[in-house]
Every structure is written in C-alpha cells, then in structure tokens.
Design goal:
This protein is mostly beta strands. The protein has 1 helix and 20 strands. It has 2 domains: 93 residues, no CATH class; 154 residues, no CATH class. A hairpin with a 2-residue loop joins strand 16 and strand 17. The N terminus and C terminus are likely disordered.
C-alpha cells in the first residue's frame, strides 16, 4: 500500500500556516526562493512572476459542457450538484485569488491561491459544480486545503479527492477507481461501488462500506473501518489506529501486537492466518486493536 497521503503536501500546508501563507505549487529548482528565506542564495535568475487573477473571489459562471474536472483550491468546501445546465458558483475567502476558471476541451479547470494569516476565517467558503440531470462525468480530481469534499449520487470513471484539514464524504458514488485522502480529516464512503478503492488519512478516521473489487485503507493514528462486499482482496494498515472489519472472506491474515479478535474469539498471537483463496483480507497494525467478523452479512445502505 502506498503511504498515507503525500507527506510533502501535508508538510507544505503545515509550514505555510505557520509562516502565514498558503501553499503554492513547488517552484522549479532553478528559480529563487519566492519567500526570500535566509537560506536562499542570491542569484541573477529571474523571480517567478505572480499568478494573475482571472475572476473575483466569489461569483457564478455558466459553462459549456465538460466531461472531466481538474480543481485545486484553498478555502472552500466542494460539492457537485445536479441542475438544469452546466455551471459553477463559489464563495472563496476574500484574499483568495482565482488563477484559472475555464473549460478547455472536455475539461473544467479551476484553481486558486492566496496568502493566509494566523487569524484567517474560512467559514462560509464553498464551491459548487453544477452538471445537468442525466449527464455523467469521466475523470474528476478535486483538492482543497481547508474545506470538506462532499459527493452524493455521482457516477464517473476516475475519482481523486484530497483535503488537508477537511473531511472527504462520499455517498452512493460509483467509480471504476476511487482515491480519497485527508491529512487530519475523516474519509467516509457510504454505499459506494468501485473496482479499486483507496482511502487514506494520517490522523483522521477512514470508513468504507459498499462493494469493491479491491480496497485499501490506511491511517497512522486514526481508526480504519471496513464494512463491505469484496470481490478480490482488501488491505487495511495502521500504525496505532484501531481496525474494525465486517467482510465475508475466504482468507484472512492479521498482524498486530495489539489485541486481535476474530468472530468473537480473542487470539493471543501477533499473527493469525485463516483460510485460503479469494476474496481475501489482509490487516496489519503496529499497536492498534483489531476486530474482525469475517462471517458477517454486510448490509449496504
């Protein structure tokens, strides 16, 4: 399994909050430090030009049809809703600058940047993407630093969601590939369906229920919960977070120095293997408790 979230992104956001500015895209290695830090050497290379504002920090736009979304913002909660036509409405922090807002080809692009201060208030910031009833999307990538991402009754081919301090909430979402990440927020998928699902958090809770061919859940200190029908295999990993799974499987592997309970029976060993074949469930935790009901009849909401 891959490591919970991009530590580089999490570190960039944390440091920027302490420094009083929002994270910006990493500068090429041959440009000077835009923050002017003491460690930066003086060079004759040109400074990076600031990104131009292309739209106000709040507004509403009618759009041409699109199939894909590439969105990266700082402050707002993000939702996708059904409506009569294609569009977007948003209320960002008044210091947030929209640097791109357009449909190019089949893709909606929206991005923003701004300077945070220690007392910045991000409440009431939101961004809503509107698609007509009966229309579906293909590839969707949504990222926000401080907001919550919430999707309901959505069908798409590829779904990538990332929030640093906000939650990621999915309800009745169908996608071939589903990737959801948060640093300190919770990741929750309710009654979702995917061929491949990956849900990760550093300190937040990760909870999936639904139907998946393969599923990967991971957290460092947060708990992981899986209530699902699995077609092939599922993997759950934590460091200190507790793990709960209700998954009918043919093969179960559990490793943890914490307590292990399987179908109501406590196991004293640090490693337990039961059964063979597929679907299979592999669980690994350093010190978290593990509770598994492999014969459960999973009720999908």
């Amino acid at each position: 399994m891959k490591r919970p979230l991009s530590l580089a992104l999490a570190a960039a956001v944390s440091l920027s909050l302490l420094a009083g500015c929002a994270p910006e895209a990493p500068a090429p290695s041959d440009t000077s430090d835009p923050a002017g830090s003491a460690s930066a050497s003086v060079s004759s290379q040109p400074e990076e030009k600031p990104q131009q504002e292309v739209a106000p920090s709040s507004g509403e736009m009618k759009l041409t049809a699109f199939k894909n979304i590439q969105l990266s913002t700082l402050s707002p909660d993000i939702r996708i809703e059904r409506g009569e036509d294609w569009g977007i409405r948003y209320t960002l922090h008044n210091k947030e600058k929209v640097t791109r807002a357009e449909v190019n080809g089949d893709t909606l692009y929206f991005s923003s940047t701004f300077k945070l201060t220690p007392t910045v208030d991000l409440k009431d910031c939101e961004l809503v993407i509107i698609i007509p009833v009966g229309q579906e999307l293909q590839d969707v990538s949504l990222a926000t630093a401080a907001g919550t991402i919430e999707l309901f009754n959505l069908n798409c081919r590829y779904l990538e969601l990332e929030s640093v301090s906000g939650d990621v909430k999915l309800d009745h979402v169908v996608s071939q590939t589903l990737e959801a990440e948060s640093t300190s927020g919770h990741v929750t998928a309710t009654a979702c369906t995917a061929d491949k699902a990956e849900a990760e958090s550093t300190s937040g809770r990760v909870k999936l229920d639904g139907t998946y061919q393969t599923a990967e859940l991971s957290s460092v200190s947060g708990s992981c919960e899986l209530y699902a029908q699995i077609g092939k295999e599922a993997e759950i990993e934590t460091v200190s977070g507790n793990i709960t799974a209700q998954v009918p499987v043919q093969k179960l592997e559990v490793r943890s120095i914490g307590s292990i309970t399987i179908d109501g029976e406590k196991h004293g060993g640090r490693s337990v293997t039961i059964g063979e074949g597929e679907p299979s469930l592999s669980i690994e935790s350093v010190s978290g408790t593990v509770t598994v009901d492999q014969n459960a009849l999973v009720m999908i909401s």
